[in-house]
Automatic annotation (TrEMBL):
Pfam families: BT1
Keywords (A to Z) from UniProt: Membrane, Transmembrane, Transmembrane helix, Transport
The name this protein goes by in its record: Folate-biopterin transporter 2
Membrane topology qualifier: Multi-pass membrane protein
Keyword Transmembrane helix: yes
Species in which this protein is naturally found: Lupinus angustifolius (Narrow-leaved blue lupine)
Lineage of the species this protein comes from: Eukaryota, Viridiplantae, Streptophyta, Embryophyta, Tracheophyta
Length: 503
């Protein structure tokens, strides 16, 4: 007994060390497991296939593919088509038009099945349109500008059609799981940010090695994965669907949308969302031309541009994480006030680098632009996410996909207005491929306009994300799609292979 007690006493110091080490390991593992538990919670509450679908559409198609397309298109317009920055800004708005007509895609997916399926054919169609558009750009060396714009618009349309379908799933689950509405938007934002981070990280390298046309060829891969989603999507087959009632369903859906949209609780925040985006003039093309100019600008290379945007994606990711863990429960009006204010103030960083004031303080352009992009993307994400949550709260049951698409088209109309107004501003200030004397004026005007939406915050409800916003008469739509209720509770994707347990 005495020997045993002595052995225990000898082991006590080591036991304390082992215990402390185990506790530290548990702490580190606990932090690392938080995202895993969060994904498992979402998968358990809304089925794992919903999470999978969001990651494919938002992460791979829009995040990764969108990043490659963004950088590739900028260099394609500058080096291949050789257009002015003001023209490139307007052309960027033209390729955004498919996102303006998202309610059309939403109506089609809600009320017009193809071969008895409501979702599968539209995913497949979206992927095919994207593949064809990108292949045409990548294989034709001397493509006319008009055909190039049509191909870019087709690729954008493919992403928009896939987006509106997955948006319907998000809106539907936001209604059935209102307490998880913010979590679902965080999932979308995180998927998009991670995909964009990866895409921007490799975009500069691929543009340098393959050129912008080669990058367009790579984008066919994300478009092909959209086709895959269409094939693995599980949904009920409706062989006896009454197609003669489609016209009536279109009318019912349109009336339901109009009845909801004219409600004061809906049109007021919609007006704010449009104006807040439209007043944030987009002059990114002018900034891009200045970034790459060898005389007036810092003459960044393709790799530097890709790295710069990838760091910006890190800022966007941080913004999504900050919203998820610290800001998601704040009232819409309070949160939008601070995010819009910081968004406007962050734009002043562009003014500092264009005036080269950063060099006066000994900060190189490369370092400062990384800070600028990170802050800009983080504040933009923080401004955008509460508006997405608010949009999902405004969707009536029964036409949630179509109405969410309508709300997103209003936002996209604001983005289009900002892009075209920015192009006009660049043209009026005579900012060209080689002349940037008035670029600082364009930045100053943009920053002032970014602050003006603060005067319109009275249009936004004071409600928090966990409360209902729609009036009772708008909560339900008379339009009901003829499918089994047990199949419409969640949109489920089947695995390519059967699970081991057979579930």
């Amino acid at each position: 007994m005495q020997e045993k007690e002595e052995n225990q006493n000898l082991e006590d110091p080591y036991g304390e060390v082992v215990e402390e080490y185990d506790e530290s390991r548990k702490g580190v593992c606990g932090c690392l497991c938080i995202p895993v538990h969060w994904f498992r919670m979402l998968s358990r509450e809304m089925h794992w296939s919903f999470v999978f679908g969001v990651i494919v559409i938002y992460g791979v198609s829009q995040g990764l593919g969108g990043a490659l397309s963004s950088v590739g298109t900028k260099y394609y317009m500058k080096d291949v088509q050789k257009v002015q920055p003001s023209e490139a800004q307007v052309y960027a708005g033209i390729t955004y038009i498919p996102w303006i007509v998202k309610p059309l895609w939403g109506l089609l997916t809600d009320v017009l099945p193809i071969f008895g399926y409501r979702r599968r054919p539209y995913f497949i169609l979206a992927g095919l349109i994207g593949v064809i558009g990108m292949l045409l750009l990548s294989l034709h060396k001397n493509l006319h500008l008009v055909l190039a714009l049509l191909s870019l618009t087709a690729g954008s349309a493919g992403v928009a059609i896939a987006d509106v379908t997955i948006d319907a799933c998000v809106a539907q689950n936001s209604i059935s799981h209102p307490s998880l509405a913010a979590d679902m938007q965080s999932l979308c934002a995180l998927s998009s940010s991670v995909g964009a981070l990866l895409g921007f990280s490799i975009s500069g390298i691929f543009v340098h090695l393959m050129g912008p046309m080669g990058v367009f060829g790579l984008i066919t891969i994300p478009a092909g994965l959209v086709i895959l989603v269409g094939f693995v999507l599980q949904e009920p087959h409706m062989p006896n669907f009454a197609y003669n009632q489609v016209n009536q369903k279109f009318i019912d859906a349109s009336l339901a949308m109009w009845r909801t949209l004219k409600s004061e609780e809906v049109w007021r925040p919609c007006l704010y969302m449009y104006l807040s985006l439209a007043l944030s003039l987009n002059i990114l093309e002018g900034m891009f031309y200045w970034y790459t100019d060898k005389e007036a600008g810092p003459a960044f290379s393709e790799k530097t541009i890709g790295f710069m945007f990838s760091v910006g994606s890190v800022g966007s990711l941080l913004g999504a994480i900050l919203y998820q863990y610290a800001l998601k429960d704040y009232a819409f009006r309070d949160l939008l006030f601070w995010t819009q204010l910081f968004f406007g103030l962050s734009g002043m960083l562009d003014l500092i680098i264009v005036l080269r004031l950063n060099l006066m303080f000994g900060m190189p352009d490369y370092v400062f632009i990384v800070i600028v992009e990170s802050v800009a993307q983080m504040t933009n994400r923080l401004k955008w996410m509460p508006m997405l949550v608010l949009s999902s709260k405004l969707c009536p049951s029964g036409i949630e996909g179509t109405f969410f698409a309508l709300l997103m088209s209003i936002d996209n109309a604001g983005v289009l207005s900002a892009s075209w107004a920015g192009g006009i501003l660049l043209h009026v200030l005579k900012i060209t491929r080689t002349k940037f004397d008035n670029l600082w004026i364009a930045i100053l005007i943009r920053n002032i306009l970014r602050i003006t939406p603060l005067c319109l915050l009275f249009l936004v409800p004071k409600a928090d994300p966990n409360s209902s916003i729609l009036p009772s008469e708008c909560m339900a739509s008379n339009m009901v799609v003829e499918v089994d209720n047990s199949e419409t509770e969640n949109i489920e994707l089947v695995s390519l292979v059967n699970n081991v347990d057979g579930k």
